[in-house]
Design a protein that fits this description.
About 35% of the residues lie in helices and about 15% in strands. The protein has nine helices and ten strands.
């Protein structure tokens, strides 16, 4: 609420009825089926919108991430594949919760970017998984990211917060096996805003977007490293080569035989 008692855009008071019903269901399930290890919530902004960029390890990610953000005062709005919005029941529910569809190609490809920029301008917390798919890295590390999170933040002038997560893959494996036994721990670690001020002055030029995305993915990997207590690998997984590629373009084969 603001000083005049009005609902702050992006707050719990700004949610649709469908969103409120979804929140009640998801929170009950996550509290029942999982345990939480949450760190870094102090980095969330007290006012204004933000972009949260997070690694993708499981189809359970949206539930674990939403639980963390909502319980820390920032109801999340996700960018999701447009195909999900075309499903008879799920699609109507996602639309009623004001989540944002991402279209691939065609005349509607720019709609997600426009809607996301408008949402953060209204004070909402937009969640982007820059990898766009569950990581293919054999050891679960973040892959190279797409530029969506960087573009939204650079255009809207809002912070990008890197969120590392680990544990959702134990609740729902990448292969689709649901395993709530033992109440796996959903580990979340949110880092400070990724420094992008020097790139904002360049607008949305392609090189600036790539550099911003590189910084965002490096920051996410650093948070995952702290959660796992393991060093970040020297290279980033390349989906086409099925190998890790170092910044200098050489191949890093260490650990890929797993």
């Amino acid at each position: 609420m603001d000083e005049a008692g009005r609902a702050r855009p992006g707050s719990a008071h700004d949610m649709t009825c469908a969103y409120r019903a979804a929140v009640a269901t998801v929170r009950l399930l996550m509290r029942t089926l999982t345990r939480q290890d949450w760190q870094g919530a102090q980095h969330l902004p007290a006012t204004g919108g933000c972009v949260v960029a997070v690694n993708h390890i499981s189809h359970a990610d949206p539930f674990a991430v939403a639980h963390f953000l909502y319980d820390n005062g920032h109801p999340p709005y996700f960018l999701g594949k447009a195909s999900l919005f075309e499903l008879p029941v799920l699609g109507r529910w996602l639309a009623a919760c004001e989540q944002i569809p991402v279209y691939r190609g065609g005349g509607r490809a720019a709609e997600a970017f426009r809607d996301a920029v408008a949402a953060v301008a209204q004070g909402r917390c937009i969640v982007v998984m820059p990898e766009s798919t569950i990581t293919k890295d054999p050891q679960g590390w973040p892959m190279a990211g797409k530029t969506g999170a960087a573009r939204i933040a650079l255009r809207a002038g809002v912070p990008v917060l890197p969120l590392g997560q680990w544990g959702a893959q134990e609740l729902l494996t990448p292969g689709g096996r649901f395993a709530p036994w033992g109440r796996p721990v959903m580990r979340m670690r949110l880092g400070p805003p990724v420094p992008l001020d020097d790139l904002r002055q360049r607008g949305l030029d392609a090189a600036g977007q790539r550099e911003a995305t590189r910084r965002i993915m490096a920051a996410i990997a650093a948070e995952v490293s702290l959660l796992r207590d393991e060093p970040v690998p020297a290279g980033v997984w390349d989906r086409s080569l099925r190998r890790r590629v170092r910044p200098d373009g050489t191949i890093d084969d260490e650990g890929v035989g797993r």
